[in-house]
Design a protein that fits this description.
single chain, about 200 residues, mainly alpha, about 80% helix, globular
Length: about 200
Amino acid sequence: ILFGFTGLISIINPVGMAFVFVDRTESLTHDERVAVARRVAINSLCVLLVAYFLGTPVLHFFGISIEALRIGGGLAVAVGGWRMLNAPDTQPPEPQGALELDPERAKGRAFFPLTVPLTTGPGTIATAIALSANRTHKLSEFLLSSIGSIVTSVLVAIVIYLVYSRAMLLARYLGVEGTKVALRVSAFLLLCIGVQIILTGLSE
């Protein structure tokens, strides 16, 4: 559990992605943003569980290699980072009062691109698949490994929700200019992560 949790969290980097989350949800109210953060966490949990238990068979079924997954997903991440890096500056939104949520808009943004590929991208999926690739078929060990995978996924989802739902607090602490700088740095790092994922896929 500790090995899987630390490995996944280091790749997902929810603190760094929090600024990306703020940028992509700038038009939402505080309540909508919290709802989207909750949906992203739930989606991330589902993505991790699918990757843990069905990732390898699904990739084999469609004839997709881990390398192809990394190249394609890395390209999507890099394009998102490039767009953010070159986007015009915007003022960080101030939290507004409780308004009626728009479920369709919130759910749409929560899955793509906020969950996939920005939060649980190809690197995360590939890591989850790799962590479960050598799972034994012995029943007792299989059950223990499965429980470990579930607990790890739940812990990662909780951290994602806690960080994303409080992303505006971090942005407010940094201030307007500090948030702009953090957004640019996060966008550049996101671009580099995408390129690195592509290079890893190409080298393999």
